[in-house]
């Protein structure tokens, strides 16, 4: 299958560079370009995009609002948003993950990293460097001084109670940035079993993907932020 990619960035030069890179790959193609978030949300539906490379800061409707629009549309449940940012540590990135983005990537990343992120996001697995995503979320949640996240999000905290002991254990490992294979080795089960637990946890908690599972683990207080 060909991965259908939508580019959302207000800088035409960057979009052109990304288009050349993406279209050079045999398993993916650029199906549209947007210069603002509202256009990105519209084109995601019209062009049946699989992955949206979303700039966080755009005039008009920004990437954060666009991500919320895409995540809120049931017909776009298959669309994965990868936030592109000039700032590796950015408050908006965390908000985007909460809004439904699959992860983030710095604009200064190597071409291979960008292409890998597209493939991983399209596959619904943990986005490039889950440990980095986890670390970013931990830092900001700690800075916010949320204390017990369950007080902030009682609905999700209540849903957390629906997890089995094993699902909760797997969720803690996911929040630690571990892959399915690494979790399987640590818990002495098969990777398929881990994947099943992850999928069930996502369904019960209303998470689109692993990135949101990490956010939920911190917001509910299941995992505590630690700042270096």
Automatic annotation (TrEMBL):
* Keyword check for Cell membrane: no
Entry-annotated residues carrying 4-aspartylphosphate:
55
Which Gene Ontology terms cover its molecular function? DNA binding
> Any idea where the Response regulatory domain is?
4-122
Superkingdom, taxonomy of origin: Bacteria
Coiled-coil spans are none
Q: What is this protein called?
A: Response regulator transcription factor
HTH luxR-type domain residues: 156-221
Q: Which Pfam families match?
A: GerE (PF00196), Response_reg (PF00072)
Single GO biological process annotation from the record: phosphorelay signal transduction system
Which of UniProt's keywords are assigned here?
Answer: DNA-binding, Phosphoprotein, Transcription, Transcription regulation
InterPro entries attached to this UniProt entry: CheY-like_superfamily, NreC/VraR/RcsB-like_REC, Sig_transdc_resp-reg_C-effctor, Sig_transdc_resp-reg_receiver, Tscrpt_reg_LuxR_C, WalR-like
């Amino acid at each position: 299958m060909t991965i259908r990619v939508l580019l959302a960035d207000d800088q035409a030069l960057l979009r052109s560079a990304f288009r050349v890179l993406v279209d050079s790959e045999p398993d993916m193609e650029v199906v549209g370009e947007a210069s603002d978030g509202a256009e990105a949300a519209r084109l995601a539906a019209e062009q049946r995009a699989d992955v949206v490379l979303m700039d966080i800061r755009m005039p008009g409707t920004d990437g954060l609002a666009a991500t919320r629009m895409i995540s809120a549309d049931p017909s776009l449940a298959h669309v994965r948003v990868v936030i592109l940012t000039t700032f590796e540590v950015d408050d908006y990135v965390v908000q985007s993950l909460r809004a439904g983005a699959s992860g983030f990537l710095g604009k200064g990343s190597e071409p291979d990293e960008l292409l890998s992120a597209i493939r991983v996001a399209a596959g619904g697995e943990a986005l490039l460097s889950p440990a980095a995503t986890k670390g970013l979320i931990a830092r900001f949640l700690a800075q916010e001084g949320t204390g017990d996240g369950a007080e902030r999000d009682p609905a999700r905290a209540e849903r957390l109670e629906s997890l089995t002991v094993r699902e909760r254990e797997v969720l803690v490992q996911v929040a630690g940035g571990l892959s399915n294979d690494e979790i399987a080795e640590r818990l002495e089960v098969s990777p398929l079993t881990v994947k099943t637990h992850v999928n069930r946890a996502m369904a019960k908690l209303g998470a689109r993907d692993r990135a949101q599972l990490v956010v939920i683990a911190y917001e509910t207080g299941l995992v505590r932020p630690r700042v270096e």
